[in-house]
Amino acid sequence: MIFEGLSDKLQNAFSKLRSKGKLTESDVKTVMREVKMALLEADVNYKVVKDFVKTVQERCVGEDVMKSLTPAQMVIKIVNDELTKLMGDVQSKITFSQQPPTIIMMVGLQGAGKTTTSGKLGGYLKKQGKLPLLVACDIYRPAAITQLKVVGEKLEIPVFEMGDKQSPVNIAKASIEFAKSNKHDVVIIDTAGRLHVDEILMQELKDIQSSVKPQEILLVVDSMTGQDAVNVSESFNEALGIDGVVLTKLDGDTRGGAALSIRAVTNKPIKFVGMGEKLDNLEPFYPDRMASRILG
Ligand code: GDP
Question: Distance from the CA of 106 to the center of ligand 1, in angstroms?
Answer without folding.
Answer: 13
